[in-house]
Amino acid sequence: MKNQNECEGCTACCRTHSVLAIGKQVGQDCPHCDWNVGCRLYENCPDDCHRYVCMWLRLKQDGRYVEELRPDVCGFVLNIYPEQCQLWEVESGSLEQEKTIKTSLIMANQNQRVLHFYLDGRIMEFHPDGTKTERPRTH
Ligand code: SF4
Ligand code: SF4
Questions:
Q1: Among 54, 45, 55, which Cα is nearest to 19's?
Q2: What pLDDT is stored for residue 139 in this prediction?
Q3: pLDDT at residue 18 is higher than 80
Q4: Residue 77 Cα to ligand 2 middle (Å)
């Protein structure tokens, strides 16, 4: 996460993502997180935390505030990379909203690689033909 002002109280990636420097695994709540407030040790938090920027925040930094992509509103943390689009589950079940699944299917149909990362370690990949495959996370 960035600082509290930038993230506006969102702390979603402090659960969804791993932080190797402090032994935090994907899906674990970080012990340093004041949930929905911010990081308690912000100035001293690991470089990975300082560097990480989700798609909502990136757009906001570019002057485009997209409320629907706020992780604590939509239920997923979005990352878009050249090779794949990632949606990370924020609350158990929050990736199962019809709107979210539909959007992922549409993106996959347009030949984008779309992956859902669940808190329990599953990864779901959406394919262009409308099918999905599931596998456990390996790292
Ligand atoms: S998910 Fe995005 S907005 Fe939320 S804390 Fe992380 S970087 Fe900030
Ligand atoms: S150290 Fe701070 S910024 Fe990093 S995951 Fe924990 S609470 Fe979030």
A1: 45
A2: 58
A3: yes
A4: 15
